[in-house]
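FW: tagging you since you asked about this chain on Friday. Here's the raw sequence from the shared folder, copied in full. Didn't touch anything.
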Amino acid sequence: MSGSIRIPDFLRISKRTSSILLLAFFLLISACSSFQRRDSNAETDYIKSFDKVLIVYLSRTNNTKAIAEIIHKKMGGTLVALELEKPYPENYQATVQQVVKENETGYCHR
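HL: got it, structure written out here
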């Protein structure tokens, strides 16, 4: 028998066993698929359950603003930017020094 492949006995399974394995595989795949859909619907329902959403942010370099806008787009509600009476310096190191001083003197409320 040249050109044919012999399957070892321990790898041979009956048609019934192969059908059961195939059915189990499809049931597992469909269960995972419906779970993911149900989970994403639950998240959407949870977000929609909020009556009022207020998103308040303070952003020196617009990074926090970008994240707040993403949250606003997903959740809806009102987006409010805080504006400091005395803005932080443009220089990053100067800002860091000012924040350190504020923290040391208790200026920032915790």
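FW: The mean pLDDT is 77.
HL: agreed, and The chain has two domains: 13-49, 51-110.
FW: great, closing this out.
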